[in-house]
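Continuing from the previous page of notes. For each protein in this section, the sequence appears first, followed by its structure tokens. Read the first protein now.
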Amino acid sequence: QVPLVESGGGSVQSGGSLRLSCADSGGLFTINTMAWYRQAPGKRRELVASITNGRTNYADSVKGRFTISTGNARNTVHLQMDFLKPEDSAIYYCQAAYYSGESLQYDYWGQGTQVTVSS
């Protein structure tokens, strides 16, 4: 069973918007950080945005366009993506993690959801 389930991916034209959601499918241990990563073909997986105890962090490439937020249900997170660009096209992955200070103790991943932005 995949520990996290993503939804909301799809195809959109440049300048459009998408909202990704991620939910705990059950069985996760305590976490304190949720994040979105993405991986484009031939590229390394990169951090897009994260949220820890209400504090958010964004990649420079998405600042001012993407917004990460937690949902009302336990271990849910959303990513509102506005003013999308073709270079935002990638598979987006949700991560739930527990950090002790700066040290990652354990994490969980979703199966990924495809985002395609056409010019």
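Done with the first. The second protein uses the same format. Note its length before scrolling.
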Amino acid sequence: QVQLVESGGGLVQPGGSLRLSCAASGSSFSRSTRGWYRQAPGKQRELVAAITTGGDTNYADSVKGRFTISRDNAKNTVYLQMNSLKPEDTAVYYCNAGGRLTSSGPFWGQGTQVTVSS
């Protein structure tokens, strides 16, 4: 059974940092594009960042310069380092696999809540 499990979410003050992790099990995604998406209340799910097996990346304009996506193929894990967090970054963050740099694939994690508030 393929599983993507996110961790690292939580409550942080504006300007703070968080690091999300997404570990895959049941299948190797070492040759698969991996991505992070988010969904805020009342809004559509949107791409945050994606990374190919070769390390090419794509970021939403709203997070460029603040967020960094990376991957460790040996650990079947992808990371999202989030710095200078803003209240508008508050959302449920989802890990994705099997897509492209600009579109999602069929595999999703269960999501992890990120709340940015003072």
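What the second structure shows: The two ends are 40 Å apart (CA to CA). The chain has a mean pLDDT of 95. We return to this in next week's lecture.
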